[in-house]
Specification:
Blueprint (H helix, E strand, L loop, with lengths): L1 H26 L4 E3 L3 E5 L4 E7 L8 E9 L4 E7 L2 E2 L12 E3 L8 E6 L8 E9 L3 E12 L6 E6 L5 E10 L4 E6 L10 E6 L5 E10 L4 E9 L2 E10 L12 H25 L40 H20 L4 H19 E3 L17 E6 L5 H13 L14 E6 L7 H7 L9 H9 L4 E6 L6 H13 L4 E6 L5 H6 L2 E5 L2 H7 L1
Parallel strand pairs: 2-10, 19-22, 19-23, 20-21, 21-22
Antiparallel strand pairs: 1-3, 3-8, 4-5, 4-9, 5-6, 7-8, 9-10, 11-12, 12-15, 13-16, 14-15, 16-17, 18-23
Helix pairs in contact: 3-5, 6-7
């Protein structure tokens, strides 16, 4: 019994010595770790996968291997050995797209830089680092490549049933998105829709969803695409406003009645002006309205005159067209001077794909398609944003896109005859004088010419950048213009709280979220 106790006492120091030696050996092991276990990046973008390893004395004895191990088959991505890249190791799939950042090896970082990302780049990557003969370790990193910002393609067509119309929205993205249909009363209509899918050449999942509705109901229908429970893209159909002309015989008689009513109102206005012997100075452009087909020479001019003072038309159609072309040429030259078409195309693609979809929201905070900032005819859109949120950049993108001959045009803005960008910061004059100040001085047009064109039938867009309510002359003349314009579209850009009057009047109010605000929310 005594001998057993002595043996046990002798074992204690031996165990402690072995444990100490084991700890020393483990602390001296060569290890590999990761900066983060998973990454997510956009299609056609780039990403840097970071692998950390124990400090080494010489990079010439270092071996770094990156492979994509899942899903099978395994693909060789990059191999760095004895200070050099092994080009024959890289699979053709990653050739010219995968690169190890050599400068960071001295900081014990094996960073794999992947460019021009594809959907099939998603998967598990293995980082193996070996030093000299026996020191080796590895770690796995997951990469997810997504495509969530593709704009929705919307279309509308007649059906065999005369009082119905089919709404269609198409979205190509990754991963697979869920489709949600709702009406203006937030009623879920998804179960009444149909859906078809196919995979594109870029491995995107193309979804086309269709919903049949009655064409005689005045209602909005919204199609949304969601992934992971978040709305990624959305578009709205306004029925029957968006039904193409001639697609329904039911509205022919309605249009006829409206035309007759307008003629009666117009005759009544002319009668009152002649009776009172007063001339409306704000209706100067109506002296020479655009001629209608098959009009006679005696009807070319409508007289809005004093009782005994004739006022013949001094501006012909040809002169009006020449002035419109003069203004178009001057604005086109001004907006296309700073950058080339190639630079503009790159900038437009980046802004519309990577910036605007992430910062543009409805007033209620919901995500909205970038096409929402483009007003319809005779519509006003108010875009609010803090300083630095990108309002002026958006104005420059719109005017440059109109002025330059690009194949990319997400707003179809090149269809417009004019786009006028107006800097309203510090403005203290009436509206039309302010517009004239933002047109090149050498342009042979005066304030009355500008007023006539903007109040007329030319399809144009006026962008008011930095507008702030409070200047009486500007506010009153702008209000008159908004009432009297025929077709002109208005995009007003302002800081939150600086246009309370417009916020209550316009139908569409959007917000540009500042990047710092976006980060604080997340």
């Amino acid at each position: 019994m005594v001998m057993f106790i002595q043996q046990e006492v002798m074992k204690g120091p031996l165990v402690l010595m072995c444990q100490a030696l084991l700890c020393l050996a483990v602390s001296g092991l060569f290890t590999v770790d990761v900066e983060q276990k998973s990454y997510e990046s956009e299609l056609h973008g780039e990403v840097k996968l970071v692998c950390l390893f124990s400090q080494v004395k010489s990079l010439s004895d270092l071996l770094v291997i990156w492979d994509k191990v899942e899903p099978l088959p395994e693909i060789n991505v990059y191999r760095y050995e004895r200070g050099k890249e092994k080009q024959n190791y890289t699979n053709v799939v990653f050739r010219d797209r995968a690169q190890l950042i050599h400068e960071q090896l001295s900081q014990s970082r094996a960073v794999l830089h992947l460019k021009k990302l594809r959907i099939k780049d998603s998967g598990t990557y293995q980082c193996v680092v070996k030093y000299q003969q026996d020191d080796v370790d590895y770690k796995h990193i997951t990469l997810s490549v997504t495509a969530l910002n593709t704009p929705i393609k919307k279309s509308l067509r007649k059906t065999e049933v005369e009082d119905e119309v089919e709404l269609s929205c198409e979205f190509a993205g990754y991963p697979l998105a869920e489709v949600l249909w709702s009406d203006g009363q937030t009623v879920n209509l998804t179960e009444k829709s149909s859906k078809s899918t196919h995979v594109t050449d870029e491995d995107l999942i193309n979804i086309t969803s269709r919903l049949t509705v009655r064409r005689d109901l005045v209602r909005n229908y919204t199609c949304s695409f969601l992934t992971e429970g978040k709305v990624r893209q959305t578009t709205t159909f306004i029925i029957p406003h968006e039904i193409p002309a001639g697609s329904s015989h039911h509205y022919v008689w309605i249009g006829s009645v409206i035309v007759v009513l307008l003629v009666i109102v117009f005759i009544f206005i002319i009668y009152r002006k002649r009776k009172n012997g007063q001339k409306d100075k704000r209706s100067k452009s109506l002296k020479c309205p655009p001629p209608f087909p098959q009009t006679t020479a005696n009807n070319d001019c409508l007289l809005t005159i004093y009782e005994n003072t004739p006022h013949p038309c001094d501006i012909t159609r040809e002169e009006h067209a020449e002035k419109l072309q003069t203004l178009r040429d001057a604005l086109t030259q001004r907006y296309s001077q700073p950058i080339t078409d190639t630079e503009m195309k790159t900038r437009l693609l980046s802004y519309c794909s990577n910036v605007l979809p992430h910062v543009l929201q409805l007033r209620e905070g919901q995500a909205v398609n970038i096409s929402s900032i483009f007003p319809d005819k005779r519509q006003t859109v108010l875009l609010l944003g803090k300083p630095g949120s990108g309002k002026t950049t958006t104005a420059q993108i719109l005017s440059s896109c109109w002025a330059q001959s690009l194949s990319i045009d997400p707003w179809n803005i090149k269809e417009l005859q004019l786009v006028v960008s107006v800097d309203c910061r510090g403005a203290n004059s009436e509206f039309f004088k302010l517009v004239r100040c933002n047109i090149p001085k050498e342009t042979p047009l005066d304030v009355s010419d500008i007023k006539e064109m903007l109040l007329g039938s030319a399809d144009c867009l006026v962008i008011l950048d930095g507008y702030k309510e409070g200047n009486r002359d500007l506010d009153e003349t702008l209000g008159m213009f908004l009432k009297e314009r025929q077709t002109c579209r208005i995009l007003v850009m302002s800081h939150p709280g600086e246009c309370p009057g417009l916020e209550n009047k316009v139908g569409t109010v959007l917000n540009l979220i500042h990047k710092s605000d976006d980060k604080s929310e997340t």
